[in-house]
Each structure stands twice: as structure tokens, then as C-alpha cells.
Amino acid sequence: MIYICLPVHDEASTVGPLMWKLRRTLTDVEFRRDFRILALDDASTDGTADVLERYRSALPLTVIRSDERLGYGRAVDRLLRTAADQTPYPKRDAAVVLQADFTDDPSAVVDLIKTIEGGADIVSGVGGTPEEPAPRGLRWAHRAAPWVLGRVHREAPVADPLCGYRAYRLIVPRKAMRDDDPPLCTSREPWAANLELLARLTPHARRVEEVPLTTQYRFLARPSRFKAVRALRELLRLRGGSPWAPPAEAAKA
């Protein structure tokens, strides 16, 4: 089973088409896999709740509604906990986290899952050249992030530890949740939350791999919410020390 985890906040114009594209990808005759979509409606105010309700009868969709604004990190934490609780086969099943604004290409799920099926425990996307240029502030912040993070970025197990489009074998978050059960990630800023999550889960994974992804900025149906200064400030908060442990050694411990 593949659990597609969608943190959603005010994405009424894109979340429906995104789910249909995911369905087409996951039921394609050359790849067909069992799947369930977990969508966390994070206090949306734009009609997202109505869109999700319309799709519940047509798709294997579970909607989690939060009337309190959780922010990206806590939303992803809750989605992964839900998937880890639901799966009867955590060593086989996987969760895929992606954005609901359609900038993450749904067809990339195929490469992420095939890499999980090939033996990886965490598979992270690494960006290639986007089909259209990223917003200016995003490009500038992406160049500055390695300098802001220092050794945390240099020693990361993947080339882009800020990318949130990832697949996780569900035994990995389950193991991480046994450690006094703190949140897997908490930051409202996606980049910082993605870094936190990777740091929490890497010690419980035997293999961490990457697949190339292309971000689809042309499908962004609203102004970007990314704030460069705010994102870099959150990364600076995570700079102290290196959180990475060798995956294979940690998994044996």
C-alpha cells in the first residue's frame, strides 16, 4: 500500500486535479499499486474542504480536518503518524509526501516508489532544471541555504535536504516515534520542517537514496507563499551541530 500524504492549506484550485493525476499514475497498467490518499486540510478558508468532500466518494481518500492552523511541519507529522498507524505492513508499505499546489510532479511517485521497492528506506527528490524558472526569492534563498546551514548541509545524506517530495518506508517513522514520541517535525516553514524530518528519520534507515525531480512552477495557481528571509532564519535556527548519523550503523544499533 502507498499512502499519499498531502498537507493542504487553501489549495482549492489544485488539490482536486492533483489527486486525479495521482490516481492515473498509480493505476496505470504498467505500474498499478494499491494506494490511499491522506489529505490534511489545515484550516483552509477558500473552499478546499468542499473540494475534498466531493472527491471522497470517487477516490480512496481520507480527509483529516484541523480547525487550528498547524503549519507545514505539524501537518506532515500528523499525516505520517496516521499512515504509520493504519498500515498493517510497515516494512513493506510506504508513504509519499508532496505539496498540494501541483508544483510537485505526480508522475515522479513512480520513481520514488520503485526505489523504495529496490531496498531504500528513504527516497528524496533532488531538483534538476525546472520547466519554468522558480520565483526570484526562492532561487536566491536556495543558493544561500548551504552557506546558512554550514556543515549541516554538507554532511546531509542527500544533495538537497530541503526538498520535501519524499517516500518513506513506514517502518522508519514507526521506529522514530518510539523515541519518547516527540514530533517528527514542527517548523511551519517547509524547508526547515523537511530538514528536521530527515534528521529524525535518517538514523532509523538503512539506505537513503535520491531520484531527480522537476518542479512544475507553471502550475502554481496562486502567488508563491515562500518568504526567503523567514525560511533562511528558520534554517539558521537548525544550524548548530550535525544531526546526521550513518544510516546503516544506526539501523543495526
Q: Count of DSSP helices?
A: 10
**Average predicted local confidence, pLDDT:** 91
Strand order of the largest sheet: 3-2-1-4-6-5-7
Strands, total number: 7
Structural class, by secondary structure, is alpha/beta
Task: Describe this entry's structure for a reader.
- Helix 3 crosses helix 7 and helix 5 packs parallel to helix 9.
- A seven-stranded mixed sheet has the order 3-2-1-4-6-5-7, sandwiched between helices.
- The protein is an alpha/beta fold and 253 residues long.
- The two termini are 28 Å apart.
- The chain contains ten helices and seven strands.
- The longest helix is centred in the first third of the chain and has 15 residues.
- The C terminus is likely disordered.
- Helix 2 links the parallel strand 2 and strand 3.
- The protein is 39% helix and 16% strand.
Layout of helices and strands:
Elements: E1 2-8, H1 15-27, E2 35-42, H2 48-55, E3 61-66, H3 72-86, E4 94-97, H4 109-117, E5 122-127, H5 136-149, H6 151-154, E6 166-169, H7 171-177, H8 190-201, E7 208-213, H9 228-237, H10 247-252
Helix pairs in contact: 3-7, 5-9
Concise account of the structure shown:
The protein has ten helices and seven strands.
Question: What keywords describe this structure?
Answer:
253 residues, alpha/beta, 10 helices, 7 strands, globular
